[in-house]
Amino acid sequence: MDQSASFLQFIESRHSIRAFLPEAVPRQTIEQILATAARAPSGTNMQPWQVHVLTGAARDRLVAAVCDAFDHVAAEHHYEYAYYPAEFFEPYLARRRKVGFALYALLGIAKGDRAAMQAQHRRNFEFFDAPVGLMFTIDRSLGQGSWLDYGGFMQNVMLAARACGYDTCPQAAWNQFHRIITAQLGLPENEQLVCGMALGRADADAPENRLVSERAPLAEFVNFHE
Description:
Elements: H1 3-13, H2 27-37, E1 50-54, H3 56-72, H4 92-107, H5 114-122, E2 132-139, H6 144-163, E3 167-171, H7 178-185, E4 191-200
Antiparallel strand pairs: 1-2, 2-4, 3-4
Helix pairs in contact: 2-6
């Protein structure tokens, strides 16, 4: 297999993991992943990303604080920015429902079982048991272009992790509890949470890790102009 085909297959092999093994990730490996990811392009080389790495006691404190808020006062916490539209519409609604139902089917969660769905959503705030939690932040004064650049950086993080034998799950859900995260990490006023990410080694026996979401065919999103 030539190098280009191998690399394309490598990209296709990445998918979000929702159950991790507890084994630690060496700090040297985390640093290597982030240093490689930082080769992502950014407008005028601004490099707008800031990363907060949580392991050990720091990770556990954040998990405990956010899970407590999720269990008791979730309604008091709101997303700082709109990651999703106020109302879903097609084709995005169907795609969202399909991946959600597929996950619940693997976990044996029946349609309408709100308690089980909530319990699964809560797993986000345990980093799905991953030993490493990453929190990505950005300066509030930066514009939309820097947020676009951030996506390239985060994709690099996920691919670099795969290259090192580890897996990830990007998590927008953490943003609901940005006030708690800001306090726990001592973030300055100008630093805004973008999202979180779980990092570790996938639990191969967990049924939820068999979920590989579909992608739309090219005809649905590519337009050739000749």
